[in-house]
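Q: What would this complex look like in 3D?
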Amino acid sequence: MTTTVERPAAHAPAPRRRAPGVGAGTGALNLLNGGFLLIWGLLTTLPLLWAVVSSFKTNGEFLSNPWGLPAVARFENFSRAWTVANIGQYFVNSVIVVVISVPLTMLLGAMAAYVLSRYEFRGNRIIYFGFVSGLIFPVFLALVPLFFVVRNLGTVPVIGQFLGLNSHLSLALVYVAFSMPFTVFFLTAFFRTQPTSIAEAAIVDGCSHFGLFFRVMLPMAKPGLISIGLFNVLGQWNQYVLPVVLMNEPDKKVLAQGLASLAISQGYRGDWTALFAGLVIALLPVLIVYILFQKQVQAGLTAGVLK
Amino acid sequence: MAQQHTVRRRASKPGPALQHGKNRFIVAFLAVPVAIYGLFTVSPYVQAIFISLTDWTGLTADQEFVGFDNYVKLFGDEQFIIALKNNAILLLVVPAITLVLGLFFASMLTVGRRGKSGIEGVRGSSVYKIVYFFPQVLSVAIVGVLFKYVFAPTASGGILNGLLGAIGLDSLAKPWLGDPNFAFWCVVLVMIWSFVGFYVVLFSSAMQSIPKEIYEAALLDGAGRFTTFRQITLPLVWDTVQVGWVYLAIQAMDAFALVHIMLGISGGPSRAGDVLGVALYRSAFNDYRFGYASALGVVLLILTLIVSGLFLRVARRERVELS
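A: Here is my prediction, written as structure tokens for the whole assembly.
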């Protein structure tokens, strides 16, 4: 960010030699630009800060004193949100779904991407473009038939009891399917850059194709897997429209969806602070993960556009 | 099969040692991903196109082939036209403002400061980049609920009206999300709010790869900030802007979560804030018009294809190569 600081001194005098007049008002402009940046920074943080502060207030304070600090931090808002407002259940549901769906997305995505990038066979291109074309298809087009595909799966003998609507496993599998286009696209590009020589050496050493993938290629692809993994964790944790269609039983809802229905019900009850406590419960883990891994998260999310 | 090398050879093509047991391995690795993707993604897309040609209600197995009836009805439906118009606004306004703000902030953060040591980012630019990115990691549901309360009437804790009151602009206070003239624009603002940070980070990393010497040379030639931006920064990051544009246009088409949460399933007061995604969801799961909803989905697909094709064509310019 401040690469110029480490520059040799030879560069430093350059700006001082600029033509007269250009430098005039530079200080003022720097200040003005700094002002814009600060305003946007405040616009970004203040709503979040407001939510956090509100979550510690009483409902009375929330209405009468929206900008002030609460007299006492009301931690009971959080327990009310967790139990009475059902956030706990929603949170657990989200965790269950993502714990199933993300590792499965990564494993299946890596397997498909590996085969498609490193092996030539008839139909390779068709399968690859089949996966990648999913990037451009709006998920809405699939919603109606998807609802019936999932509902009908619930009537299949033996496995039906685990699938169908309102099943965490079904939702996880749907997440896996809809994450495939980008995961395969990203990892195919990644596996293509891996050197062939290592793969050949491993085969000569008696490694099977399976061993080569799990013991050599997968560990080598770690940086790519981390980027796309973070992308999928955030994307699937934050998914909204798919659970709205597939999970309609109150105790099966995931966090994003549960919060949205709470926003309506808590508004009627006039219990806003429990809602905001719920909002903070949903918001803090993601924000903490992001702040801890911000370089990787930013790289993972922007990589999607750049590749 | 194994010897088929009609396709151009890739540098990473596996050698002969890898041919043993290859086919079994390929099938084993592709079967499950292809099956899951086929079942939950490809088959719904294909079915949707067929359902759009029927009058299916979803309640019974009865479905009659009605040809393009649903599409004809669609374009005679005033509500569809409102939704279509709103999607057009999203498509034009959101990317335009987001890109301008993103480019502005990114250039401030990477090359905005003309100090003693030459051109650099403004002070604290790394902190800004972390903070600006916050909305991007939050669930759109969290953002929706949060802003539903920012724009709420004062009686339910809305802070925007409270803020306007505090600075003496009481007359401007209104039930933002309850006013058909403003409801949709609130959604547009929230969308821009949540997108800008991502593009700041995206463009910043593109701008960081521009050699500082170019800026120093421009400075010596007496180029002002705006000229420098237009003549140097913009052309050199144009590739990224172009890709960002398409991505943003596709993102902006999907306002479902924000409209659904902030304005409700009917798209707000007088249904004025309706968008195609919400209209589709409503026709299907509220009104049980599955054929009609699927036709809406097909229109949405065609729009997405046109938009991405169009943007790629319009935005294509000469690439500037950095040696």
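A: To summarize the key features: Chain A has one domain: 91-306. Residues 1-24 of chain A have pLDDT under 50 and may be disordered.
Q: Very helpful, thank you.
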